Amino acid sequence: MNRFPFFAYGTLIPEQPNYYLWKDNIDRTKNGLIKNYQLFDMGHYPMIVESKGNNVHGMLMYIKNENYEKIAKTIDNLEGYNPENHGSSAYNREIRDIELEDGEIEKAWIYIGSKEYVKEENAVKDGNWVKHISKKEGNKDWWKETDTVAGLHEK
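Below the sequence we write its predicted structure tokens.
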């Protein structure tokens, strides 16, 4: 597996409920955005899909080399993604260009959803999950009993 940073745009960024899964294994972070994607609220977690003219804000998470494979598997599990069966789940881990605050472009792993799982009325217009979720009640408590989003899109 290529050791690119991960681009997190939802529950995996600092001060969000799943950050604990990798916080001790993050070497550094950088703010950035992915262009031509739309962010959607799936209830308690986000999903992004391709969408011309929209942007999603997030962070590049640089994983410490010695734990990279272990952490990648942990995050794949959370996202319900099986790298041996790419395309078979709601999210797929793919490499995309991320634009950093200074205008630089960096390649990163990102979990991308499929349009069949989202509803247009649930679009997060400004592409900022943290700002959006801060207005919702009870989001952090929901995650206490959840270790993967696999199959939740079908409910």
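The chain has a mean pLDDT of 89.
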